[in-house]
Amino acid sequence: MPIYLPIAEVSIDLITLLAIGTSVGILSGMFGVGGGFLMTPLLIFAGIPAPVAVASEANHIMGSSVSGALAYARQGAVDYKMGALLILGGIFGSALGVNLYQWLRGAGQLDLMIYLAYVGFLGVIGVIMLTESVQTIRARRGGHPPPLRRPGQHMWVLGLPLRARFRKSRLYISVFPPVGLGALAGLLAAIMGVGGGFMMVPAMIYLLRMPTNIVIGTSLFQITFVTGFVTILHAAQNQTVDIFLAALLLIGGTIGAQIGARMTLKLRGEDLRALLALLVLTVSAVIAYGLLTPPEELFLLEELRR
Amino acid sequence: MKAMKAMVKGGAVFALAASLALSLALTVAASLARGEEGSALAGGLSQDRIHLRAGFTGAELLIFGALDQGDRFSETSAIIITLTGPARDMGLWKKAPVAGVWTNYRWRRFPDIPSFYALASTRRVSEILESAERRRLQIGAESFLPAPSDDFARALLRLMRKSGAYPSRAEQVVFLGQRLFRATFHIPPSAPLGLYRAKIHLFEAGRLLDTRAFSLQVNATGVAAWVSHFAWHYPLLYGFAAALIGLALGGAAFLLMRRR
Question: Is the pTM of this model over 0.90?
Answer without folding.
Answer: no
